[in-house]
Amino acid sequence: MTSLFRVTLRNSGISNFLFQFSGNNEMKFTRTITSKLVKEARPQTESKPKPWPYKEKKYNYFHQFIDRTSSRFDDNSKIIVVEGPVAAGKSKFAKQLADDLDMYYLPEANLDMYYFNDYGFDLRTLDDQLPENARSFDVNNFLMNPRSIQSASFQMNQYYIKLSQYVDALAHVLSTGQGVVLDRCCYSDFVFLEAMYSQGYVSKAAHKKYYDMRNETFGHLLRPHLIIYLDVPVPKVQENIQKRALSYEVKSPALTKEYLTEMEKHYKQNYLKEMSKHSALLIYDWSDGGDPEVVVEDIERVDFNRHDNQDLKFKDWVQHLEEDWAYLRRKYCNEKNYILTLSQVTVFDVPELLLGPEEAHERHELYNNAPGNEFEYGYNAKMGDKNFLFKMSAKYRDTLPLRERRQY
Asked: In angstroms, what is the C-alpha Rg of the chain?
């Protein structure tokens, strides 16, 4: 249950304000995140610029003089991350929350987003043409074979894909003004690594390389405004896994009580503790599910404007000059590949993260000649692309697709 008793002003349309008192006892109103219902009922006094098409068009230095980033911001221009253990109901809740708040939903980043190319071809179908250690390895493979030599590189790839998605989330907020709800994010990915490390699935050297990669990239990001943690005890998680009845989870030798307990420990003792210094935090007992509307009411009470020079909370999002917002927008829209490149730390001293030159070359050639990968997106005649003479450039950024992880 999320709550036993609560008094709400939601139906009156007043719940999207917080009351604050200044030093002279003057009462002020502070705007917070508002639900879609309240926004629709409230008269619109200002018109916002149309969303910038950041997936197709760069935002350069000259654009900042005619397209102010802050002009699109409103109460809901926030990043919210939904966290919790396996089979807690995060995806369903996050989708509903995004709809209730009129925000953009990003499903949990997964390697399906990498293995499917822009034309929908699944590179994993080429596995039978590759040596075993050069084949694809996703979460389903890990759950069925956690002691594989590929487990360490799998977790590094998991972080990489979550980092890529989080940069997309930042670009979306700054370019459109629309808030984003994510199902997990790169900041919490380490809880999986720690659970794997505790069970001996990754080596000490690979464990260190993961944190080298993480530390190289975190300084370039803005932390989320709000983290919502759906708390489910380990025995209930195991029960939910059985009820969900996904074969690779039910039969998994990885999802043991010890593994899940280690995840829970690092979530609560490390991740939530550290992130609560910078982000607002809401925690709910989700053992039997909960009511998203109750969560929306709680979100509407959070003061996201609270900040002073001695407080780290929301400090990442305090920018005093329009030029600062423009810089961040260019960074996340135009320089995504640079941020991702920072995660490519040297791994020559970690055998489990290496692939032999022959195997690497074989995979490279096979992937590059797969349907849709021979040329840049939009220039593959075999895939139905046309009018090449009128195309003057290639896709300037790789934005992850909205693809849910396959379940079977």
From this structure: 23
